[in-house]
Amino acid sequence: KQEVTQIPAALSVPEGENLVLNCSFTDSAIYNLQWFRQDPGKGLTSLLLIQSSQREQTSGRLNASLDKSSGRSTLYIAASQPGDSATYLCAVRLPSGGGADGLTFGKGTHLIIQP
Amino acid sequence: GAGVSQSPSNKVTEKGKDVELRCDPISGHTALYWYRQSLGQGLEFLIYFQGNSAPDKSGLPSDRFSAERTGGSVSTLTIQRTQQEDSAVYLCASSLQGTGGSRPKNIQYFGAGTRLSVL
């Protein structure tokens, strides 16, 4: 059974710092990996999706890397801002039939950016 | 276009009652997913619909849970004889499956969820 672990569970840093969130998964045979953010009382917003054949994806100040063989992904946030405060979730999908299956989520990293 | 819409946003019910939660996916998305987010448990997958294929029910926690998707669009998640442990936020997501074309594939877009409280 696929398990996803996120470290740290919580993180508080001053505004402007660069930071790294970590995600590890036990079954390396993934179809893709997705990073989300969740704001209190709201649904999830997709940030980046990395296909199993890719090594990284970038969007603005965000960069996600994937090392499938070691079962790891990192989300790098550059020049953090108070608006980045949220819970960040990592999720993987296993290949299943046409590659469409439910996501397995980590429990998230609760990030606070201090102004 | 509009995102994934879920209703109601909040539902309070008494133990033993049945509840129905609704999800309107993004227009044109063929795949629809239901997840449950419980305090301290994280997000867990419940059920998945793809087009007209039989749904993947592997994540449903008990036979009190069922879901249907009418006409390949709107989906309803039904919980019968609710229990206090069913209290959670129920999230729906949709995605465009496959390869090719210009629209992004396989990215799941989530609704804001329905917060269910069973008293």
Question: What do these coordinates show?
Answer:
The complex is a heterodimer of chains A (115) and B (119). Chain A has strands at residues 4-7, 10-14, 19-25, 32-38, 44-51, 56-59, 62-67, 72-77, 86-93, 104-105, 109-114. Chain A is mainly beta and 115 residues long. In chain A, the strands form two sheets. In chain A, strands 2, 4, 5, 9, 10 and 11 form a six-stranded mixed beta sheet that branches. In chain A, a hairpin with a 2-residue loop joins β6 (56-59) and β7 (62-67). Chain A is globular, with a radius of gyration of 14 Å. In chain A, 36% of the residues are buried. Helix content of chain B is 0%, strand content 46%. Chain B is built from no helices and ten strands. In chain B, β6 (65-69) and β7 (75-79) form a beta hairpin. Chain B is globular. The interface between A and B is medium-sized, with 26 and 29 residues.
The percentage helix of chain A is under 10%
What is the helix tally of chain A? 0
State the separation between the terminal residues of chain A, measured CA to CA.
41 Å
**What form of chain A results from the Cα inertia axes?**
globular
Number of DSSP helical runs of chain B? 0
Tell me the radius of gyration of chain B.
14 Å
Largest sheet of chain A, described in full? 6 strands, mixed
Q: What are the secondary-structure elements of chain A, in order, as H or E?
A: EEEEEEEEEEE
Quote the distance from N terminus to C terminus of chain B. 37 Å
Contiguous uncertain segments of 5+ residues of chain B: none
Task: Give the total of beta strands of chain B.
Answer: 10
